[in-house]
Write a structure and sequence with these properties.
The chain is of the alpha+beta class. It has helices at 2-12, 15-57, 109-116, 130-135, 175-180, 186-193, 213-223, 238-254, 256-276, 278-286, 291-326, 334-337, 348-374, 378-382, and strands at 60-64, 69-70, 82-95, 98-107, 126-129, 143-149, 159-170, 181-185, 199-200, 202-206, 228-232. It has two domains: 2-51 and 241-386, no CATH class; 60-232, no CATH class. The protein has 14 helices and eleven strands.
Length: 387
């Protein structure tokens, strides 16, 4: 214990050594926080995208290769699930001398809310995405015209024009959906196109609570065979989600260079102390301090640097998240990146991965450096000041 305390006094003596240690800590902390923030942004993008998709599509989507189908053909097969029928058609939305191509979804608000969690207020009007509302300069209560293409042979090349009031403005969290989605009562849409009451072209299905997602998907696929097709809620963005996973792995590996560079600052601190305090260290050895005691102290010091740096990195990452969320310069063009906001979201496995790699690098490089120092003899260390 006495030898350890003596070594600590040697290390802490002098402002230069303290400042060097603090600089090494901050450098190492910053490198760890950069990696945490990068992984957190990737995870945040994926989680936000999945949550937004689920909030407008439920867990699963059922379609038919034949296009429209009747609910009565599937009601028995879906009796163990919560589901919501959807009839969707394309149209043009016109308001304030501006028009936009939109996807009109005829839904039943109560069942739609149970499956997706999206609360729609459809009295006698429609609900529109908030980006579409901004594009058309619309507020709740304003009038909007929907132009549908008629699919009746006698009305070929004709159009169906209908005016509606905007009952609510909704936010999906995905730019394209907020720009293109319009919700209307399914009965209103069926009446407009003169379809049978049970006609739909999509079903949104919620998975059973407590059941694994993949298990639910497999069971539903076995229940609904050809011509029906079952897809998870993220199917339309499957390629993008896979790309994010690949990029997260590759960027995390590349950013290890930053950690290694920061560790060189820690190594420089060790070399600086060993050079500047060489005589004191070797005097301790001459007075009986074992090489294992000194080696153990350096390992404890490396662990201390790693531990404190990890804590500071967590604080830095939290600050980065606040900055990213508040400053408008970090807003994304939603039409390019799907989402308009970034958020750092980290799980326990992310922290363990980053901290473990940082621990590995600091002990690998630090131990090699100390091993080279230990090769010097007591006599050569005591003569250091005369060189």
């Amino acid at each position: 214990m006495g030898s350890t305390w003596s070594i600590f006094k040697i290390i802490s003596e002098g402002r230069a050594a303290t400042r060097f240690l603090v600089a090494a800590l901050l450098s190492f902390s910053f490198s760890i926080s950069v990696i945490l923030s990068t992984i957190g942004l990737m995870d945040g993008f994926e989680i936000s995208l999945r949550n937004s998709l689920k909030g407008s599509s439920g867990d699963f989507q059922v379609t038919s290769t034949k296009g429209y189908f009747l609910l009565e053909n599937l009601e028995n097969s879906l009796k163990d699930y919560e589901w919501s029928p959807v009839m969707q058609v394309e149209a043009f939305a016109v308001a304030n001398e501006v028009n936009k191509g939109v996807l009109v979804k005829g839904v039943e608000p109560s069942s739609f809310n149970k499956v997706t969690g999206l609360d729609l207020d459809l009295n006698k009007g429609i609900a529109i995405g908030h980006v579409l509302a901004e594009e058309l300069n619309l507020n709740i209560g304003d009038s909007i015209r929907l132009t549908f293409a008629s699919d009746k042979m006698r009305d070929q090349a004709g159009a169906i024009l209908k005016n509606y009031a905007v009952d609510s403005i909704v936010t999906h969290g995905i730019y394209e959906k907020d720009l293109r989605f319009v919700y209307i009562s399914r009965n209103e849409l069926l009446e407009t196109f003169k379809y049978k009451q049970g006609a739909v072209n999509k079903l949104l299905v919620a998975g059973n609570d407590g059941e694994n997602f993949e298990t639910s998907l497999s069971r539903l696929e076995q229940t609904l065979t050809t011509p029906y097709k079952v897809e998870p809620y993220w199917a339309e963005y499957k390629t993008l989600l896979k790309a994010v996973e690949v990029e997260k792995t590759s960027i995390s590996l590349i950013l290890q260079i930053i950690v290694v560079v920061a560790i060189f600052n820690v190594v420089a601190f060790i070399i600086y102390i060993m050079e500047k305090k060489s005589q004191e260290f070797f005097l301790l050895r001459a007075f009986g301090a074992s090489i294992s005691t000194i080696s153990r102290f350096w390992k404890v010091l490396l662990f201390f640097i790693w531990f404190v740096s990890s804590l500071v990195a967590v604080v830095m990452t939290w600050v980065f998240n606040l900055v990213i969320g508040k400053l408008p310069v970090f807003e994304l063009p939603g039409d390019i990146y799907v989402l308009s906001k970034l958020e750092i979201i980290l799980g326990l496995e992310d922290y363990l991965l980053v901290f473990s790699l940082a621990f590995f690098w600091i002990f690998l490089i630090g131990t090699v450096t100390m091993w080279r120092m230990k090769k010097r003899t007591v006599l050569s260390g005591l003569r250091q000041e005369f060189k």
